[in-house]
Write a structure and sequence with these properties.
By secondary structure, this protein is of the alpha+beta class. It has two domains: 27-123, Jelly Rolls (Sandwich), CATH 2.60.120; 145-178. The protein has helices at residues 2-13, 147-177; strands at 27-35, 38-46, 49-56, 59-66, 70-78, 87-90, 93-95, 97-101, 105-113, 116-123.
């Protein structure tokens, strides 16, 4: 009985200290970008609204609107329109990004502060001609699997399911004896 109360108490108090998911989750979208009479798809997952995406003067320009103070975005940009060093500018100020690349896409993760309307500009060494040299960039193909988080998530689901079924059996037996 004491174990059941301790388990129930831990299930109730643990969510109190959890970080809200609403600021860390986002909507996925795809945008067609016209470059030299060709259309490429830029994919995004962000917790803000991307109003438009265009390609001007070798720069990808995103018009965004955010209602949150802490913004997070993941962008998949085809290698056909980005080459070499990629830089991100929010309202004219450079912001840091984690960038992974393979032979097909550049995958960028951005975090920045500030709600309201913003312009995000993505610049690179784009050229219509094939660029032979590319700087050293972390490869997507060598990314380690996150096995510990997967095991922890599965273990959490198993424990929650076990606790719920134990409580259901307990309350069912309790109502029969009363």
């Amino acid at each position: 009985m004491k174990f059941l109360i301790a388990l129930l108490f831990s299930l109730i108090t643990v969510p109190v200290f959890a970080e809200p998911l609403s600021e860390r989750t986002g909507m996925s979208a795809s945008f067609d970008v016209r470059v030299d009479d060709e259309i490429f798809v830029v994919k995004s997952t962000a917790n803000f609204d991307i109003r438009s995406v265009r390609f001007d003067n070798n720069t990808i320009v995103l018009e965004i609107k955010s209602s949150l103070e802490n913004n997070l975005a993941e962008l998949q940009i085809p290698q056909n329109i980005t080459r070499g060093q990629i830089k991100f500018y929010l309202d004219g100020n450079e912001i840091p990004a984690k960038i992974l690349q393979n032979d097909k896409i550049s995958f960028a993760t951005l975090e920045f502060k500030g709600n309201g309307t913003h312009t995000l500009e993505i610049t690179s060494d784009y050229s219509k001609e094939e660029i032979t040299e590319q700087p050293e960039v972390e490869s997507l193909d060598n990314e380690p699997d996150n096995d510990i988080m997967t095991i922890a998530a599965v273990l959490g689901i198993v424990i929650a399911t076990g606790a719920a079924s134990t409580l259901a059996v307990y309350f069912k037996r309790r109502t029969k004896t009363l």
